[in-house]
Amino acid sequence: MTSINEAAQPAAADAPLPIRRIFLTGGSGYVGRNLVRHFVAEGVAVVALARSPQSVEIVSALGAQPFAGDLFSPDLVEGMAGCDVLIHAAADLDHGVGSTAQQRVNEDGTRAVFEAARAAGVQKAIMVSTESVLADGQPLVNVDETHPFPRRPAGSYSASKARAERLALAFNGSEMAVIAVRPRMVWGRDDTTALPQLLGAVRSGQFAWISGGDYQTSTIHIANLCAGIECAIRNGHGGEVYFLADDEPVQFRQFVSAMLATQGVTAPDKSVPWGVLRAVATIGSLLHKLSGGKFVPPLTLQAYATSAVEITLNIDKARRELGYVPVMSREAGLAEMVKEQLSSNRR
């Protein structure tokens, strides 16, 4: 019988999953909730780490078995007992100036979770990383997995997630295969991250395009991310990194405008030159350091690097080695968001 660590040829996406039980961190978050739905629908038991009563309720309602605790719980090994796979989706996503709390969650938390997984006998672990590990404020055009980490990361989020990715991959070995996936700009139904922030900026009058927003970006619909992670479980090679994205890049302005339109909101025309915002972010970062953290900049280089320049990903490796094929087109995903919004309005 072939182990889930021995995939030589990409297994068919419609073949039964060779696993029984998944341990998931970040289960009540946007990505986590959709992973629970995805794998429960596949007939796989999901144990979701839940650090609050509200999180327990959320994952329970979705069909997962909650395990009360956090990334540093001493009984984490017990919670992972009997699990074939770990999916580590929990992270501090703050794109601000950074904090020791972010470092603790993203780095120390990753180490703690993977140590527990190894001790529990988990066979395969998926690290949900990000394309931001490569961000330094410069364009990233059709980058693949050979692109080196930047000498100076854009900010705390990029730096801490890059260290977390390296920490996770260091656990790869004959007993536990560790694979990292790097999605970019997750979007779609049930979005509680990017879309609410965009809507808030528009409604408060703070939204502006950066140099018109006419640069290209890769994106990934939440259904494609779930499918990509399933492919990584089926076919991922231990120690490897895979970019995951929708079929083709899209103009940043076109895509953000289309997302806002699904909520009945029209994006404003206001635009700010990229050079101005880059200067604001750079000066703000300097003042933050000189003030010992007392000055909080209105814009960080981390936030700038995420949305102000082209970031497009080459997903050939995921297609070739994982058998990854996007299951949701951009048009269908946007139509799904419109339907969800109309249903919400009728309630």
Any key phrases for this structure?
single chain; about 350 residues; alpha/beta; Rossmann fold; two-stranded parallel sheet; 12 helices
Give a concise summary.
This protein is an alpha/beta fold and 347 residues long. It is built from 12 helices and 15 strands.
Explain what this protein looks like in three dimensions.
By secondary structure, the protein is an alpha/beta fold. It has a domain at 21-187 and 218-249 and 311-328: Rossmann fold. The protein is built from twelve helices and 15 strands. The strands form five sheets. A seven-stranded parallel beta sheet has the order 3-2-1-4-5-7-12, sandwiched between helices. A two-stranded parallel ribbon has the order 6-15. Strand 2 (45-50), helix 2 and strand 3 (65-68) form a beta-alpha-beta unit. The longest helix has 21 residues, at 100-120.
